[in-house]
Amino acid sequence: MTDMMEIMQGDITKLDVDAIVNAANRSLLGGGGVDGAIHRAAGPELLEECRKLGGCNTGEAKITKGYNLKAGHVIHTVGPVYSGKAEDSGLLSQCYFNSLQLASQNSLKSIAFPAISCGVYGYPIKEACKIAICTVRKYLEDGKSSVTRVIFILFSSKDYNIYEKYLEEISGRLRGC
Ligand code: AR6
C-alpha cells in the first residue's frame, strides 16, 4: 500500500490532482494557514459554495469544486484542536478516513493532504504523521476505493523529513503500522 502513497514538500495549492484537502475550521468560511492559501488560489467562488454547506463538524468532511485551482475539487475537513486528550487521535484519523470516503464516493483517483491540525491547531507533527499514514494505509488496504494515489504534502523540510522517515520505517512491514 505504501506504493500508492507519496510525500512532497511544497504548496498544496499548486497540485494537479483530483482533490486537495483543506484543513478548515467548523465554519468552512476560510481562515489562515493552508485554508487561507486555498481560498486565495481558488478565488471567491469557493467561499460562495462553502457558504451553502452549513459548516462542518470536527472529524467530518465536505466537498466542493476547485474553481481556479488546478485540482478539480477541494475536500474540506476540520481537524481537532490538540488538547493532549485521548480523543484527539480518533478525530484526526476520522479526518483522513472521511476525506478518502468522500473522494471515493465521487470516483476520484488522486488526493493530496496537508498536515491537518499541525499548524494553528497545535497537533505534534510526529504523532499526526503516524495517524495520517496509518489511516490512509488501512483505508487503501481494503482495495475497494477509487483512490489510487495519495500525496502527503508538507510545507517545511522538517515536516517532510518526519514523514519520509516514518514511511521508510513502515514500508518493510507487512501488516499495519
Ligand atoms: N501547502 C501545504 N501545507 C501548508 C500550506 C500550503 N500552502 N500552508 C500551510 N501549510 P494550518 P490547522 C501547512 O494552521 O492546524 C486555519 O486558520 C502548515 O505548515 O493551516 O489544521 C483554519 O481556518 C501546517 O503544517 O491548519 C483553521 O481555523 C499545516 O499546513 C485552522 O487554521 C496545517 O496548518 C486549522 O488549523
Give your account of this protein's structure.
The chain is of the alpha/beta class. The chain has one domain: Leucine Aminopeptidase, subunit E, domain 1, CATH 3.40.220. Helix content is 39%, strand content 18%. It is built from 5 helices and 6 strands; from the N terminus they run ββααββαβαβα. Strands 1-6-5-2-4-3 form a 6-stranded mixed beta sheet, sandwiched between helices. It is globular, with a radius of gyration of 15 Å. The mean pLDDT is 96. The structure holds ligand AR6.
Topology summary:
Elements: E1 5-9, E2 19-24, H1 33-42, H2 44-51, E3 61-65, E4 73-78, H3 87-105, E5 110-113, H4 125-141, E6 149-154, H5 157-171
Parallel strand pairs: 1-6, 2-4, 2-5, 5-6
Antiparallel strand pairs: 3-4
Helix pairs in contact: 3-4, 4-5
Separation, N- and C-terminal Cα atoms: 11 Å
CATH architecture: 3-Layer(aba) Sandwich
CATH class: Alpha Beta
Low-confidence stretches: none
Q: Which class do the helix and strand fractions yield?
A: alpha/beta
Summarize the structure.
With 177 residues, this protein is of the alpha/beta class.
Task: Give short descriptive properties of this protein.
6 strands; binds ligand AR6; 5 helices; 177 residues; alpha/beta; Leucine Aminopeptidase, subunit E, domain 1; six-stranded mixed β-sheet
